[in-house]
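Summary of Year 1 activities. Much of the first year was spent building the evaluation harness for sequence design. The harness presents a backbone, in tokenized form, and records the residue chosen at every position. We chose the following record to illustrate the format because it has been used consistently in internal testing since the harness was completed.
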């Protein structure tokens, strides 16, 4: 396992991931599971976020609390990353949001950028790029390239299922970026899909083909 990869293997996560993978899971349940899993992942992906102490007043009297110290930005890769972003925002509603549109050419399997809108002034932000699948790694590396142009404080890549080629590609191009995933599947097929994976995440999320 690459040293920059955190594999989240909590029993509840693995239970929900199993239902996510199932062929008979319909779009409604699939979307709900993606949101739930993304929200659960926040506990791990925020483990190293800095916090600060602040004075507060409880109904009984003064106290000292702890809050996140700094700016958080969540950047979904369109289109499948949108639902993951929603799950994270349910946990961290103050996070700022950007979007990166990338599709994979079906012949060359190379990433093609068609949209990029990032939050302004993210130099002091911890950025989380989210996409359900890390397969070839082309889209992930391209998204990281685009975000790095804004010079954020840190970048983390968050996915549900990954495969060795994608992990190795991020490690080769961006060794400073940590990867958080729920599973590392063994291989890709000839079309660049993760095996066994869960199919096309976008189509399953939105009921398209």
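For this record, the design step produced the sequence shown next.
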């Amino acid at each position: 396992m690459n040293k920059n990869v955190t594999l989240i293997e909590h029993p509840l996560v693995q239970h929900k991931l199993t239902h996510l993978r199932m062929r008979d899971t319909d779009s409604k349940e699939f979307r709900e599971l993606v949101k739930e899993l993304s929200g659960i992942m926040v506990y791990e992906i925020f483990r190293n976020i800095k916090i600060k102490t602040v004075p507060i007043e409880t109904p009984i009297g003064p106290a000292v609390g702890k809050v996140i110290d700094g700016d958080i930005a969540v950047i979904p890769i369109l289109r499948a990353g949108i639902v993951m972003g929603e799950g994270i925002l349910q946990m961290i509603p103050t996070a700022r949001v950007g979007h990166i549109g990338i599709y994979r050419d079906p012949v060359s399997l190379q990433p093609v950028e068609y949209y990029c809108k990032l939050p302004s002034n993210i130099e002091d932000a911890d950025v989380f790029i989210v996409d359900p699948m890390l397969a070839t790694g082309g889209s992930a590396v391209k998204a990281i390239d685009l975000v790095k142009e804004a010079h954020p404080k840190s970048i983390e890549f968050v996915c549900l299922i990954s495969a060795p080629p994608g992990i190795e590609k991020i490690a080769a191009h961006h060794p400073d970026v940590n990867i958080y995933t729920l599973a590392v599947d063994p291989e890709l097929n000839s079309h660049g899909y993760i095996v066994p994976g869960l199919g096309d995440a976008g189509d399953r999320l939105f009921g398209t083909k």
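Helices lie at 11-21, 27-45, 81-91, 138-148, 164-173, 201-206. Quantitative recovery figures across the full test set are reported in Table 2.
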